[in-house]
Amino acid sequence: DPKAEREREAYFAAGYGWDEAVRLAKIWKLTDPDEAKAMGGKKLLAGQKLPVKPSAEGVQSALEYKRVNAFFEAGYEIEDAVKLAKIWKTKDAYGAKIEGGKRLLAGQKLPIQP
Q1: Among the residues of 28-92, which ranges form H helices?
Q2: Which run of H or E residues covers position 40?
Q3: How far is CA 18 from CA 26, 55, 101, in A?
Q4: Cα dihedral angle (95, 101, 104, 105), rounded to 10 degrees?
Q5: Which residues contact 6 (CB under 8 A, 6 or more apart)?
Q6: Rounded to whole angstroms, how far apart are CA atoms 25 and 34?
Q7: 70 and 104 in contact (C-beta within 8 Å)?
Q8: pLDDT digit string (tens) for 48-99?
Q9: Which of 70, 74, 62 minimizes the C-alpha distance to 101?
Q10: Could you tell me the maximum CA-CA distance found in the chain, to the nearest angstrom?
Q11: CA distances from 96 to 13, 23, 29, 59, 62 (A)
């Protein structure tokens, strides 16, 4: 179901995870935390706030995921990340994907083309 998929994606993109789904299920009196994920995503897509905040780690993870996706959606590949890691002296190629995505989302160009 594409609608349910969008709702779950919105839930995770906001930094929420399993622990928050368990807490939300209790608050909303749902038996299944997966239902809480869908309901939470639906509320987020409608511009509503949830009664539970995402963890700092969840928010950081969601941000990294968004940046890595931007890197790949721009046409870059793993080999490009390896090259960028050397240019930027990042710890590894994954760090270069995150940095590349961050720069792309900010409207910047990267020093190599995909």
Answers
A1: 33-45, 56-73, 78-88
A2: helix 33-45
A3: 13, 11, 26
A4: -130
A5: 41, 45
A6: 8
A7: yes
A8: 999 999 999 999 999 999 999 999 999 999 999 999 999 999 999 999 999 9
A9: 70
A10: 52
A11: 21, 35, 43, 19, 16
Say whether 61 sits in a helix, a strand or coil.
helix
Query: How many angstroms separate the CA atoms of 102 and 16, rounded?
Result: 21
CB of 68 closer than 8 Å to CB of 97: yes
Residue located via tokens 């928010």: 59
Token reading at 17 = 């995870």
Tokens representing 50?
A: 């949830």
Q: Residue 17 has what pLDDT? A: 95
Separation of alpha carbons 15 and 97, rounded Å:
19
